Amino acid sequence: MTTKVALHLSFMTDQNKKVNLSIPSPKQPIDPAAVDNALQTIVNKNVFVFPQGRIVSALPAQQIQTDTTTIS
Fold it and tell me: Which among 68, 69, 60 is positioned nearest to 30, based on CA atoms?
């Protein structure tokens, strides 16, 4: 079985659309304070612009873990 972990950062744009950034294999353990700081920096500095608009607020981040098992 293979386990993969990703950190998903979610934001709302000025067009009221949700956008996501995915960070594969983040450093473990994930530091919630560092994640919150990164989210706010991305919002405050206008780091990214998406077709769905400019980021105006951060949503809660999520750690996604996926287990894969080969059957045959």
Answer: 60
User: CA-CA distances (angstroms) from residue 43 to 24, 26, 35, 38, 57?
Assistant: 21, 20, 12, 9, 6
Q: Closest by alpha carbon to 17, among 54, 46, 47?
A: 54
For residue 64, which amino acid is it? I
User: What confidence tens digit (pLDDT) does each residue in 8-66 have?
Assistant: 999 999 999 999 999 999 999 999 999 999 999 999 999 888 999 999 999 999 999 99
User: By the 8 A CB rule, do 39 and 33 touch?
Assistant: no
Distance CA 34, CA 27 (A): 11
Which pTM was predicted?
0.86
